Structure prediction request, 327 residues.
Amino acid sequence: MESVTSADVARDSGVSRTTVSYVLNDTPGVRVSDETRARVRASADRLGYHPSVAARTLRTGRSDLVLYVLPDWPLGPAVDTLLDHLAGELAQRGLTLLVHHARSGRPLRELWRTVTPLAVVGVLGFTREDREAMQRAGIRAIESPFSGDVPDVFAATQERIGRLQATHLVARGCTVLGYAAPTDSRVRLFAELRLAGVRATCAEAGLPAPVVVPVELTTQAARTALRTWRDGDAPVTGVAAYNDDVALAVLAAAREEGVACPDQLAVVGVDDTTAAQFSVPTLTTVAQSLDAQARHLAAAVVAALDHSGTAGPPPDDTLRLVVRGSA
Prediction:
């Protein structure tokens, strides 16, 4: 089936293609009656016509696309929620979010040359070559507050997650902690930083280092991990899990092994997913204020586009402990 063109819309609405262009691109300074505008838009909707983004970019010299480059991370609930909030924040500013999941190894410059975005946001920053090439092309290169070395906001936030988990477990009397690590190598950086927070808290409290066990998301793997923690003269009494999925696997294994939670084993997850409030027992977890992070990222994009400086420091109240039955 052939695609619908502006000529089709013009014929259907009884106006010229120029008028169609004026109406659908909201061209300023052009007088078109409300009746004609309504007729053109009705024809476009009925025929299913959508103006070409590339053509509009050539005419106006700008695109409304913001390209958001994600590293090769799994798309879990936290990332999905952040992107959803960010898309909403940008939409309120007349901008469209386009997400690129960097898995193929395709050079970034090939992508932005194809879609001609107004700006590119890099979660973990850009190479100097990409940054300079985008600057020459008139594309704003925006590095998120989680990129760069000074200040290392990303690392500090991840370590604080582990500290919140461990501090709560220690406060409720756990003297030997375990860390339920993920098995997906793509999240190794997150896991290592969170584990560093748990280790630091144990050291400051005079407790032994946490017993680290990778937990694959299967019943048998979780039961094996649980036995590792519980065997020996000093059984683990509190587990900080990489995220809620891993924590829920540990809770399921505890039920099957007859280990009472939280009396014999307290468990804390991360992300405050929907399932956390329905587990047995309900899951204590660290929630991240993803809406605040999304608002800050959107503000950073707009500030860069408007050449109005920065969006200010990232929010520092993005983490909170949600205490439920498991700890």
In short: The longest helix spans residues 153-171.
